[in-house]
Amino acid sequence: MSKISKIVYGILILLLVFKPHFSAHLSFLPKPYEDSIVTVVILGILYLIYFLNKREIEKREIEKINLACKIIDLDAKLSDSFTYIGQVNLKLPLLKNLTTDLLIKNKSTIKEKKEVFNNLLSTAVSSIAQVDWGMLRFIETDTGRTLKEYDFTVKDYILLKTQISNKDLVEATKDWDKKLKKIKNINFVTSSDSNFNIRCYLIFPEVKIEENNLEILQVIVDQSQLFYRYLY
Amino acid sequence: MSKISKIVYGILILLLVFKPHFSAHLSFLPKPYEDSIVTVVILGILYLIYFLNKREIEKREIEKINLACKIIDLDAKLSDSFTYIGQVNLKLPLLKNLTTDLLIKNKSTIKEKKEVFNNLLSTAVSSIAQVDWGMLRFIETDTGRTLKEYDFTVKDYILLKTQISNKDLVEATKDWDKKLKKIKNINFVTSSDSNFNIRCYLIFPEVKIEENNLEILQVIVDQSQLFYRYLY
Fold first, then answer.
1. Residue of A145, A54, A128, A118 lying closest to A91 (CA atoms)
2. Is the pLDDT score of B139 beyond 80?
3. B219, B221, B228, B229: which to substitute to probe chain A, counting the most A Cβ within 10 Å?
């Protein structure tokens, strides 16, 4: 309760207690007039009390609304940062998944070597690009010969051989500039090393890829390129 | 303002306005007694108004405190998530830094090849382990011969040749189990592929390494291993 409210209460109490003294000074007025004046003064002060209390409550209501708005704002920020953390937490393990987890495995048999590329490809296709199928093709750029090819399909999807030719792929990446290339309705990403005579191509159906996911696809293709050289 | 407060105000106003009528019914009492009764009743109702207003303001104050506590709680959560995002944002670019950014560079001359390993080593030493110096040593495990060695020192730190021998390193990692090994006051991490006859060792001074940073050091050593095979 504010100081001013307390003062007004005090004045009203004093007025009521000392009313007989005021009455003595107002004795020249007839009794009904005197009573009316006292009633009007008390009503006026009561209105003042009512007004002050209303203002104090309104002040607190406004403060409450401001706090509630701040909570809504913080909630939104927290929700945004949790969404971001969720996305990031999916990507963080990739650092280990695409390197250590593959290097630690036995890679002596053909099947074990194939497993490395299947792992890289399935991550690219199902987790990052989120498409139905994908291929990793290693091409000798001088001759246009396919050295290795690995494919991956989601569920029971039957992969028909793509019509995309090695010549088209090599030609399209001669002047390597942007990362996501397109021929007809096929997307592809190629390894970053444009000087090495073997290049890896990740081929998948046309789909919109966000910039940061494209960066990860590029990392997967580059890891495939490194592992190819490491294993063959 | 609550309904009950408004009713109490109404009763007080009615009492004041209709006071002359009550006085008529109390005419058997002497005037001073009558005035005192009216004053006591008005004071009682005033106290009731004071009490109700105080309660309403206190109710809002408690609601404000609850909201303020919620804000403190949300602020703390937001601060925690920003700290986490800060840590993660330092690690996220590593995925690209340790693969694409290195593969895209020219790597034809000896100097350019050395640059790749200097990049990997400086990330490990200054950003992750946060120590004064570090070495990447490639050892042929059959013969114990050093094939390549790269060193990195922070600022003007002069690196004295470490006393750690290849024999000790190879011996310590024969039964490859845990990632961080120690010989005397030297830490080292070795590449995950225990079957390949060339192994990479990251050697640095003894320091406490957190589990997730150790994972990143492991990734850096494994990338060095892949790049060694790719470039030599």
1. A128
2. yes
3. B219
